[in-house]
Model the fold of this input.
Amino acid sequence: MNFKQWHKITLFCICILIISGLVYYSNLSNRHKAIVKTHILYTLNIIDSDWKKNHNENTLEFTSPSFLIDNIYKSMEGPKALQYFSFNTDKDELLWMTYFQVTALDKNEENILSNDFICHTNINFIPQDHHGRWNLNSRMNNQFPRLISLSHGVEKISFPKGFGYPFFSDEKFFMVTQSLNHNVTDSIFQVKHRVSIGYSNKKSLKPLYPKLIFMMLPYDTENPYEIKQDMPANSCIPIETKNHTYQDEEGNFLSGHWKIFKGKSKYTYNVTNLLAIKDTVTLHQITPHLHPFAERFRLIDNTSKEIIYSCEVTNHKNGIGLTDTPSFKSEKGIKMYPTHDYQLELTTNNTTTEIQDMMASLFLFFYDKEMDEKIKKYNDAL
Done:
C-alpha cells in the first residue's frame, strides 16, 4: 500500500471520527453539551481557564475561569468550573467565615454584569478534614457536606452578628460556580464569577452548624417522564432520574429536581427525618435556594402550627429570573425541638407556556453547642 492510499484511509478515518463526534454531541442534553464544550475550550486555551485568588484583609476572593454564554442555559445547565482551596494564611489558626458573595463580571473583569448570569456557587467542606480535627467522627457521612449555596436571587449573605462558621486556615474546601442564562438569545459573550468569602479571627464568635434540607417529590419509576392528566397530588415528573434522585425510608423513589407546568402548583414535603433533631436546637440563619417561578417557600412547625420562615419570592417582571429570595437571620434565634414535626411548603406559578424546572432547598445554620465547648478548650490550651 503506497503513501497516497494510506493518506486516503487516514482522512477517511478522521472524517468518521469527526462525524461520530458530532452525532454524539448533538444527542447530548444541553447540560452535557456545556460540559463537553467548556472542556474543549479550556483544553485548547481558547478562553481563560484559570482561577485567580486574591487575599485581602479579612476577605478571600476568587475569580473564576471564563464561561461562554452562547445559548439559553436554565438552572443546572450552564458552563461551570470547580476547584479545591484553602485560606493558606501565614500561620495555622482558627478562623470564622462570616460573609459570602458572588458577582458576575465581563471577561476582562472590568464591568459588573447582571446577576442573571449566576446560577449558583456551592462551597463544600471536607468532612474528614473538618470533623476529624475536632474528633467529631460521629458527624461523618451524616449529611451532604455543603456549607452554603449562593444562587440566583440570593447572591450574598452574612451570618448574624456574633456568629460564624469555624475552620482552620489550612483546611480544605471545594467550590463549584455555574453560569446561567434564561433570557439573552441575540449575542455570544463570556462571563466570570467573582466569589468573596469574608472571615474573622476573633475568638468570641459562636459557631454555627450547617444543615441542608430540600423538597423531594415521588414519581412513577416505571414511566417517570409520562405526563398524565390524573397524576397523584404532590407527585412530579423528574427532570432526570440519574441525578437528584433519592429513596425514602419505605424505599419510594423521590426527585429533588422536577418539572412544573403552566399555572400555579403547591407542594409539601415532611423534613422531620432530614432535620434529624436529637436535642433542642436554636436556628439562627436560613438561606434559600430556588428556581424561577417559585412564589413562596415556607418551613412550618406542624406541631406548634408556627411558620418558622416564609420566603416571599420576587420574580422578574420582564424576562425569566429571580429578583429576590429573602434570607432569614437572627441573633436571638428560633428554637426547634426533637419531638416536633416539620414540613416544607412550596408554591409555584409558571407564567409561561413552556415546561420549567424547579428545585427548593434551605440551608439552615444552628448554634453548635458541642463545637463551642471544643473551641473553648482549644483556646484555653493556646
Observations:
- The chain has a mean pLDDT of 91.
- The chain has three domains: 1-43, 44-206, 210-223+232-372.
- The longest strand covers residues 94-106.
